[in-house]
Amino acid sequence: MITLDILRLRELLERELASNELEPLDDEFYKEFDSLVKALEFKADSSKERGDEIEERLSLAELKIAKELMGEIIRIRLHKIVDLAVKGVPASLPGDEHKVFNMLVSFINREPVAIHVEEKIVEKKFEEEKIEAKRAVREAYLIEIDIPKVLDADLNEYGPFKKGDLVVLPLQIAAILLERKAAKRIRISP
Fold it and tell me: Is the pLDDT of residue 101 over 90?
């Protein structure tokens, strides 16, 4: 099993964007992502305790990028899973995605849909991230030139980016990069 990292997430996002078919995933993919998140959080906490502010900020930036990439991957994969369910095409999917597929097929066929929801305590931080994600509509952008770090209106840092990077950005930054022909919008078709 290959360890999941940001590079692998980016490669998967690029493959998902480039194909109308679902990319095959290991059954442990989502567990690997959870482990990546925990490792990055632990790294940030350890750096903070050691007083290494730079390492802490880098770890938090990596964590944010990983979550954004994963959000895009899930969104694209869900669109594809819905298409498969509508067509009635069975698919080989990891466990949680297979459950979603089966629920969709049951819904489409007007059969009773069994939903088993586990109650989880949602941290306030996660809720704030969801609210922020809803406010700032995001798209994928292909970077055309090397770009140093940039700041948004709230002084959040983005970058640095290298030519060929596929990134998710707030619309205000993306608009500037598009205007200056420093990035190209990648359309994600539903």
Answer: no
